């Protein structure tokens, strides 16, 4: 087995709860401890109040830890210069795509503010990871269906596979219908049993492991897949196989 | 290393088809995850009739945790229990009203520990309970990754408050709690099947703590509470 690729990570801190050690050093140490070779990350400052400053910090941290992180530039739909700025960011080595957080930015995934982001992603062939949340007015599975149909060449990761277990069937339905939608698995309410159920529903080749570290403990996310009641071939797809395929041409 | 899950449900649950719907299924899950034993609340006690004490097959690996409900429509102190669970939200009672305090005092006087889910009661009520009955041994369960500051308020103030690892899944949160308050106040738990068991079990094997502290978390602390 090659090293694990974590498709959904973060750097930085967050206002709504305490992270006792939010240093990138601590994250790399935990990655080393549980076999995660590479983490695809966005910066939490960028997801929160300041995409420009947060994206700049992201580049610094990627450079500080060569080979350990790949970057998502956060696309702020309220920033009038977002299209140009994120296009520039995607030129930087190690940047693999865009991170959209419709819930924080209170802008629907299928809204006009994100159209340029999807056009950019289609042009560059990069990955788009969007926060997904069943029941959200901004980013429920139905919003992913709309943009997947509108931009069929964009490699779209549905973050958290919809987040709430009640939404997993709807997320699986969207992934089954749209070949460009891949389910990403992190979430504090997700269980290994849910992972196995989604593998049965959509196939591990349409799913990627993510942890949500530093929001969440990386080890808990890794363990959920490592100890899930699934075949080893499917486990390998979740932990690195599917994401390796999606990253082809992104770096 | 002996591993005991302090926070588990046996029996069918309303939100899904789970392997632990019966005792053999639960035991198979424990085997699969190398968990030696579990403190179990029966799902009928949680979601059907908390006063009836549903039957559970006798098995040394399954440690029965009865639910306790205060007041004239409650359970009193369940006979023979060393650990009980109280569920104020699910069973609709006031934890720190006179009946709740009276039951808590009985539990404390008889050395019975209580599991309290943060999602069921909230940190303010746990603070009031621990203030009123400081000798009551409380294990806060299902804390979630967002509540670390509130948990710190509780654990700084009340030395008999402990925490389990179910959903205590913020980045290195378990280590932070163990270092600040001592590993003797952290217990391995999963909340399964409603919350994940595989992740916490894997985390237990990868904690950045000395082996003797991990063993306390894995089983030593709950075995001490169980006497």
TrEMBL record, chain A:
Domain of life: Bacteria
Ranges where the Amidohydrolase-related domain occurs: 5-245
Lyase is among the record's keywords: yes
Segments traversing the membrane: none
Alphabetical list of Pfam families matching this protein: Amidohydro_2 (PF04909)
InterPro entries per the UniProt record, alphabetical: ACMSD, Amidohydro-rel, Metal_Hydrolase
GO terms, molecular function: carboxy-lyase activity; hydrolase activity
Alphabetic keyword roster: Hydrolase, Lyase
Name of the protein in its database record: Metal-dependent hydrolase
UniProtKB/TrEMBL annotation, chain B:
One Pfam family in the UniProt entry: Amidohydro_2
Organism, as annotated: Kribbella capetownensis
Gene3D superfamilies tied to this protein: Metal-dependent hydrolases
Protein name: Amidohydrolase-related domain-containing protein
Domain of life per record: Bacteria
Residue ranges of domain Amidohydrolase-related in the record: 80-227
SUPFAM superfamilies (alphabetical): Metallo-dependent hydrolases
GO molecular function: hydrolase activity
């Amino acid at each position: 087995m090659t090293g694990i690729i974590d498709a959904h990570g973060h750097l930085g801190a967050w206002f709504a709860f305490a992270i006792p050690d939010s240093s990138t050093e601590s994250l790399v140490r935990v990655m080393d401890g549980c076999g995660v070779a590479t983490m695809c990350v966005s910066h939490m400052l960028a997801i929160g109040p300041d995409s420009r400053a947060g994206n700049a910090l992201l580049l610094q941290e990627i450079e500080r830890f060569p080979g350990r992180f790949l970057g998502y530039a956060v696309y702020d739909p309220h920033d009038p210069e977002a299209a140009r700025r994120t296009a520039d960011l995607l030129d930087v080595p190690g940047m693999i795509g865009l991170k959209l957080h419709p819930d924080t930015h209170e802008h629907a995934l299928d809204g006009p503010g994100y159209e340029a982001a999807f056009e950019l992603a289609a042009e560059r062939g990069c990955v788009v990871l969007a926060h997904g949340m069943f029941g959200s007015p901004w980013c429920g599975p139905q919003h992913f269906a709309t943009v997947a149909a509108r931009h069929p060449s964009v490699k779209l990761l549905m973050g958290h596979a919809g987040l709430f277990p009640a939404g997993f069937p709807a997320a699986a339905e969207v992934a089954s219908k749209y070949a460009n939608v891949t389910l990403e698995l992190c979430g504090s309410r997700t269980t290994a049993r849910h992972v196995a159920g989604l593998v049965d529903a959509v196939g591990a080749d349409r799913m990627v492991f993510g942890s949500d570290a530093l929001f969440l403990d990386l080890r808990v996310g890794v363990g959920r897949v490592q100890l899930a009641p699934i075949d080893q071939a499917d486990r390998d797809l979740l932990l690195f196989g599917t994401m390796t395929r999606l990253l082809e041409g992104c770096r | 290393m002996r591993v005991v899950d302090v926070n588990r449900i046996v029996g069918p649950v309303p939100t899904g088809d789970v392997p632990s719907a019966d005792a053999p299924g639960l035991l198979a899950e424990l085997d699969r995850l190398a968990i030696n034993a579990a403190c179990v609340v029966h799902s009928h006690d949680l979601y059907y009739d908390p006063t009836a004490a549903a039957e559970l097959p006798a098995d040394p690996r399954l440690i029965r945790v009865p639910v306790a409900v205060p007041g004239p429509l409650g359970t009193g102190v369940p006979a023979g229990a060393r650990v009980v669970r109280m569920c104020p939200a699910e069973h609709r009672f006031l934890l720190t009203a006179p009946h709740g305090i009276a039951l808590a005092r009985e539990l404390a006087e008889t050395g019975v520990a209580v599991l309290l889910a943060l999602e069921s009661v909230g940190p303010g009520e746990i603070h009031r309970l621990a203030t009123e009955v400081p000798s009551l041994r409380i294990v806060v369960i299902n804390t979630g990754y967002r509540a670390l500051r509130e948990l710190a308020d509780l654990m700084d103030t009340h030395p008999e408050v402990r925490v389990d690892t179910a959903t205590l899944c913020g980045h290195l949160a378990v280590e932070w709690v163990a270092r600040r308050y001592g590993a003797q106040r952290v217990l391995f738990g999963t909340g399964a099947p409603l919350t994940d068991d595989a992740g916490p079990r894997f985390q237990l094997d990868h904690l950045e703590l000395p082996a003797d502290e991990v063993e306390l978390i894995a089983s030593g602390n709950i075995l001490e509470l169980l006497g």
